[in-house]
């Protein structure tokens, strides 16, 4: 079977699991994107992923991410095997430990992740069919040992390069890139800040941002313009496409774009970025 870097395609779309239905998945596929990433802690039964796979011809569906504190590992394994039987090679399990502010029981996440992966191993879920959301160096080391690679979230190209260096040339590095199609910088930053507000209150994300070189002042409050501009690409479609290319140049195999604001019709943005990247002959 081909590698994940080939099966995922160069560019995919990240969207909350409740915000993408079969019709949108077919549109995404038709625009040339290789993968739909289902965010917002998809359930371990994977019914939402299965519905998208049933409705499309070739696109990959990846979870971004299944939260180990909210999803039963044994059920996830059963769902994986069920879907693999009907859609071989089209499901990638993105797995993560979430953040402690939302999950009071989140203690010793490395140990908990190891136990979760043990269950998947025992149930015959291949190491090659899962990736970890690895924000810190120790989780990244686990990703290298016990998965196909990593799916970083809210990261910048320099972190993509660090992940590539840590994981080596053959692992999958598939970062998310948030985008706002708006050439009014002030308006675009307002949209970006509305999106980032939640994450700037979470220690694992602000810690990762500071490891990337942002200062405590950058991550405080609503975030500095410097932080907002680096993490959320905004501007015309050409600029958004350049943000994707920056991750690819830094060593990413695949980049998934997340369109903000989430409530807007994302199809025009996806069409415009697809054209800039030459993903497909996008319909008018």
TrEMBL record:
Classification via Pfam families: Bac_luciferase (PF00296)
GO molecular function: oxidoreductase activity, acting on paired donors, with incorporation or reduction of molecular oxygen
Occurrences of domain Luciferase-like (ranges): 23-104
InterPro entries: Lucif-like_OxRdatse_MSMEG_4141, Luciferase-like_dom, Luciferase-like_sf
Native source organism of the sequence: Nostocoides japonicum T1-X7
Phylogenetic placement of the source organism: Bacteria, Bacillati, Actinomycetota, Actinomycetes, Micrococcales
Name by which UniProt lists this protein: Flavin-dependent oxidoreductase, F420-dependent methylene-tetrahydromethanopterin reductase
